[in-house]
Amino acid sequence: MKIFRVLVMLAFVLGGIALLCAPSHAQGPKSFTPTRFTVVDQGTASKPDVILIPGLSSSRAVWDAEAKLLAPNYRLHLVQVDGFAGAPSGPNMSGPMLGPIVEELHSYIVAGKIHPVVIGHSLGGLLTLMLADKYPGDVAKIVIVDALPYYAVLVDPTATVANIKPQADAMGKQILAMPAAQFNMMAPLMAAQMVKNPEAQKLVAASSGTTDRAVMVNAMVEDLQTDLRGDVVTIKTPALMLYAIDASLQQPDPVKYEALVKDSYKSMPNVKLVRIDDSRHFIMYDQPEKFDAAVESFLK
């Protein structure tokens, strides 16, 4: 049961297990072709640009409902990270992953001559922070959905980049060594920890086997060693941070989690924190109306 508790926590903090990819045609600026992700270009071409990035092992399908609401007023760029949710793995299987994805997001933005709002869930939220930190001129606004500048503090409150590495490597090896049947058997249990909506739970659980586990572990280990706590003070981009609170959930403890969110973002100058109650990690599934209202108000 120990490895299950670890997987539940990692699934929560890094964005859950795989979601089914919606059939679509990837598009993007003709002068740049990403090697780490694909992008579907939707919405109204003449409207302001919005890039949406899903979390660990999730597909762009997590944004389907929100995309329908935003499409009349925005041009949407729906990202799918390679290796997640059935997408070909490519170079994400080994070596640095998050930094190269940020570099390709920057190249995508420059090639397309856009100045987008970027919305990221969980791991996608961390990527959004990394992009705004390194390339502040790329983004008009950012929306961080239930993500922290340093995820490892949810695993260990005393974590540092140095002391978390052996633990992260060990967890990665355990996950890789786990038989597929055992890993897949945990999927419904993990899904129930991350989303309350019964239909969304089924979707998350049914899709868990479609992510390349090597890519998932590669992203997870790097994520646990990416600490932006000292960087957020320099991120001056207007930001909205949505965080989920479910009083019935024991992991993470709602009171401690809220305190951690506030402490993590207290030095970020232009961030607005919005608490979404009666929701677990996938706010867009558990509280879609509140989610959309907060996002649309911020974008306007």
TrEMBL record:
InterPro entries documented for this protein: AB_hydrolase_1, AB_hydrolase_fold, Carboxylesterase_BioH
A Pfam family it matches: Abhydrolase_6
Source taxonomy: Bacteria, Pseudomonadati, Acidobacteriota, Terriglobia, Terriglobales
Gene3D superfamilies for this protein: alpha/beta hydrolase
Native source organism of the sequence: Granulicella mallensis
Record's keyword annotation contains Electron transport: no
Boundaries of every AB hydrolase-1 domain copy: 50-293
Keyword entries, A-Z: Signal
Keyword Transmembrane attached: no
Signal sequence, start to end: 1-26
Protein name according to UniProt: Pimeloyl-ACP methyl ester carboxylesterase
